[in-house]
Write a structure and sequence with these properties.
The protein is of the alpha/beta class and 314 residues long. It is 40% helix and 16% strand. The chain is globular, with a radius of gyration of 18 Å. It starts with 18 loop residues before the first strand and ends with a helix.
Length: 314
């Protein structure tokens, strides 16, 4: 019945950051940011999804911070970033741009990984100057660009208007989730994780999701319901890799395949058999390995080379 915001021990307990800062977005929203790892190491930026927080990336932070500078932030209204009355894909893009400008040096390149709404944040911000300047490569985990509610399979019904109508009301509910109970864990596992997810994975995700305020959960559900970022996908011109679970009920693999077909430079699509929507938690080593490989391939400093300023490489 605990109301802990995240698990306190084990592989999914968030590590202590090297430093913390608050970044102010264009509309005044305050964004909580954590930096882990050596200051001069190759940079990785992590953007979490709907109803989650920095804690969602605990396994990736632990795996990468030994030799990368890992920058993770709480989306507005999530984690330690205060709630803000402004919802929408442009505010998400504003927040990411503000984080990149505050944490990366001019011309510094990073791998940016986004899960679910974090991936949508990248699509929304794809044409922003800070993303063009700083994104060496991108990893999209369990995400989509449009028609999310109609394609979701959370409800075991035939696709159509009735399922879409009911799914919209389930995902957009204003009801508080309440404490993390055995029933709550079973419901969350069914909706967001693969059937083979082990209890400590489920508990980690349940505590993070249940910590999200109901008004924030509802507010962002309305944005996701109306999402249309297909134009943003075409603006992601850097190398992009995609990961999705075949049992993802929130963003089924059809979204990943559509992204792969639309991206200007898709360098890989990995479909993980039997995994659900929470791929960074369900397959932590694989997701961390993808980020590490992208950094080694596309960030010159990760290979010991001189970084070329953006204006020189244009």
């Amino acid at each position: 019945m605990s109301r802990l915001l995240h698990v306190a021990d084990g592989p999914y307990a968030p590590p202590v950051p090297a430093r913390e800062l608050t970044v102010t977005a264009a509309d005044g929203a305050r964004i909580h940011v954590e930096v882990h790892g050596p200051e001069n190491a190759p940079a990785v930026v992590l953007a979490h999804g709907w109803c989650c927080s920095i804690a969602f990336w605990a396994a990736q932070i632990r795996a990468l911070a030994a030799d990368h500078r890992v920058i993770a932030y709480d989306q507005r209204g999530h984690g330690r970033s205060p709630a803000n009355p402004v919802y929408g894909t442009e505010p998400l893009a504003d927040d990411l741009e503000a984080v990149l400008e505050a944490t990366l040096a001019p011309g510094e390149r990073a791998v940016i990984a986004g899960h679910s709404m974090g991936g949508m944040t990248l699509m929304a911000a794809a044409a922003r100057p800070a993303v063009r300047e700083h994104a060496a490569a991108v990893l999209l985990c369990s995400t989509g660009s449009a028609r999310l509610v109609a394609s979701a399979t959370v409800l075991p019904m035939r696709a159509g208007r009735a399922r879409t109508w009911l799914t919209r009301r389930v995902l957009g509910s204003r009801a508080p989730l309440g404490p993390v109970t055995p029933l709550a864990r079973r419901i969350l596992k069914y909706a967001t994780m693969g059937p083979a997810s082990v209890p400590h994975m489920v508990d980690a995700c349940a505590r993070i999701v249940h910590a999200c305020p109901s008004r924030v959960r509802h507010g962002w559900s309305q944005v996701l319901d109306l999402l249309d970022l297909e134009h943003g996908v075409r603006e992601l011109r850097m190398p992009v890799e995609i990961v999705v679970g075949t049992a993802d009920r929130l963003t089924p693999p059809v979204h990943a395949r559509e992204l792969a077909a639309a991206l200007p430079d898709c360098v890989g699509l990995t479909e993980l058999p039997g995994l659900g929507h929470m791929t960074p938690v369900e397959a932590p080593e694989l997701v961390s390995g993808k980020i590490r490989a992208l950094a080694a391939t596309y960030i010159p400093s990760a290979r010991g080379e001189r970084a070329v300023p953006v204006e020189e490489s244009a």
